[in-house]
Amino acid sequence: MVLSNDEIRRYSRHLILPEVGLAGQKKICSTSVLCIGAGGLGSPIAMYLAAAGIGKIGLVDFDAVDFSNLQRQIIHSTEDVGRPKTQSAKETINAINPNVEVVIHNARISSENAFDLIAPYDIVVDGTDNFPTRYLTNDACVLLKKANAYGSIFRFEGQASVFAPHLGGPCYRCLYPEPPPPGMVPSCAEGGVLGVLPGIIGCIQATEILKLALGKGSSLVGRLLLFNALDMRFREVKLRRDPECPLCGENPTITKLIDYEQFCGITPEPAIPVANPDEVTVQDMKKALDDPNLGIKVIDVRDPDEYHIAHIIGVPQIPLGELPQRFTELDPNQQIYIHCKSGVRSMKALKFLREQGFKYLKSVKGGISAWSDEIDPSVPKY
């Protein structure tokens, strides 16, 4: 491989580093990386890898750009709202470095296509935000002997590592043998995330990829890097390969990809939606609020900060975290409708109150987001 004069100028600050030099830059330019996710983590990862000269970047994402993405997903702009993330990201990458080959995979990675997507690339980087895809990515990378540059973020905290049993380290299953119960860990949409946090963790992931491409430095293989933005502290946990790991242990039992939604306890959406007997619609909630003679009480279990952003007039608030101390304020013999942002926390509240002997409970499907969409657009969506 020969670098052109333009490429030599572009990468000059790499070329004068003894640890990189001309030979190292050629390695970077010859490396291919599959970025799973073109969102918060995928944005800085893809942009810095492109600027550094990674020769081929694959982008896997099936989502479209939303206004709520722009607070942290810097690869997309306001004009990209509504467009496929892969297409928006490709244009940004090529604007940074037209020498990079960008391959877009506008699809959801699954057990059926994971091997085909991952096999052509040298390194995989996990920029996903859900457990089924993390386990799927991990398993496919281990079985194909590909390094997996892992990162995750939530609220003000992030973590990063490199899972690569073929390089002597553990895999994701060694760290997390079992996924948490469904709904136990809130998503960023429910819990929030500091906008700059994915930039910090994504840059760490990109750094690890460049070190792997160069074969230089001490990688995060066998180490988990933890970051707390509020305290501005990094700490490190040593990771060891679990000899009992069903995937990379001494006697592996996982030799092919599985149904990861089932493994994580997530029930797939039926082809024909089936009504949940514990749920009502926002139209039902509106009827309850409009007609007090129905005797239905509506409560909001979101956090106070969210209530200040958007709330429905006349609906009292009992945050989910305060419910164990305040449920005695409610009448166990009254019909109660419970709402939150999207319907996740209201179902948790319903389960808790039912355990306390409440019988007449319903969760409002879609929460205040559905209320804004279907009943009152003046209520802000966040």
Topology:
Elements (H helix, E strand, L loop, with lengths): L4 H6 L1 H4 L5 H9 L2 E5 L5 H11 L3 E5 L24 H12 L4 E5 L8 H5 L4 E4 L4 H14 L2 E8 L2 E7 L8 H4 L12 H4 L5 H18 L8 E6 L4 E6 L21 H4 L15 E2 L1 H9 L5 E5 L3 H6 L13 H4 L8 E5 L4 H12 L5 E4 L2 H8 L8
Parallel strand pairs: 1-2, 1-4, 2-3, 4-5, 9-12, 10-11, 11-12
Antiparallel strand pairs: 5-6, 6-7, 7-8
Distance between the termini: 49 Å
Major pleated sheet: 8 strands, mixed
State the low-pLDDT regions, or none.
none
Spatial order of strands in the largest sheet: 3-2-1-4-5-6-7-8
Shape: elongated
- Tally the structural domains: 2
By secondary-structure content and strand pairing, the structural class works out as alpha/beta
CATH architecture of the largest domain: 3-Layer(aba) Sandwich
Radius of gyration from the alpha-carbon trace, in angstroms: 24 Å
CATH superfamily of the largest domain: NAD(P)-binding Rossmann-like Domain
H/E series: HHHEHEHEHEHEEHHHEEHEHEHHEHEH
Count of DSSP H/I helices:
16
Number of E strands: 12
CATH class of the largest domain: Alpha Beta
Mean pLDDT: 95
Query: In the CATH scheme, what's the topology name of the largest domain?
Result: Rossmann fold
- Strand content is 15-25%
Level of helix content? 25-40%
